[in-house]
Amino acid sequence: xxxxxxxxxxxxxxxxxxxxxxxxxxxxxxxxxxxxxxxxxxxxxxxxxxxxxxxxxxxxxxxxxxxxxxxxxxxxxxxxxxxxxxxxxxxxxxxxxxxxxxxxxxxxxxxxxxxxxxxxxxxxxxxxxxxxxxxxxxxxxxxxxxxxxxxxxxxxxxxxxxxxxxxxxxxxxxxxxxxxxxxxxxxxxxxxxxxxxxxxxxxxxxxxxxxxxxxxxxxxxxxxxxxxxxxxxxxxxxxxxxxxxxxxxxxxxxxxxxxxxxxxxxxxxxxxxxxxxxxxxxxxxxxxxxxxxxxxxxxxxxxx
Length: 304
Known about the structure:
alpha/beta; Rossmann fold; 2 domains; 4-stranded parallel β-sheet; 38% helix; elongated; disordered N terminus
């Protein structure tokens, strides 16, 4: 007998309660921060993974940016059987206004600092994964550099732990304003083999990024970007999620709850599939030889 969302075994331990929901006219509601193609990719893979396992329901999608939080009252009235939150604003709004409904999130960076409750699949790729990989390219790497603010303090602390594990020195500067970025970068530049950008929109706006990438080439150190766009612009390497697989992972959390896994509702999992992008011209300018197997495995190589 196939699983159905209409069965009252769909229970999520959220905010200390265990509500059970029966599927009547309810649907799976998708709440997006805004309309972007990556969200559509996640939703398609989420739905397909559920359907392959016999879990079927109607899907309804809502754009928080377009309609504002007034849509949350509309969603509550529909009594959704499950809510899929895409993005930080979506998850925060839904977890506040739609308490008691089962929900899962994805497409969120650093849910812990943003006070997003499980279950869900974050976009955070561990620094351990990144450093283990990049050490194969920068073979004599001794010092990692970064600049952070209060908003990225938790990511800095995570990076510090990863550097300690690999025996790497971390040269870091904390700033309170993006105007302090050039001087902070100058202060650590002579020590750095690899500069790692942290997810911190208060620091990394387009002008800051342009300055960082140009300065790194002048001073002869590599930059690890936040996504493929940074690699194309001049970072040596960046790591991206496999967005289709994020949807699959979110669906698998739902399936684990259906299977009465006692831990599933408390899980926040990281991406299990990572895509690497490389900039060959930057590597050549810095005198780095990227192993052929790493080039072959990269999702995209710029500057061939």
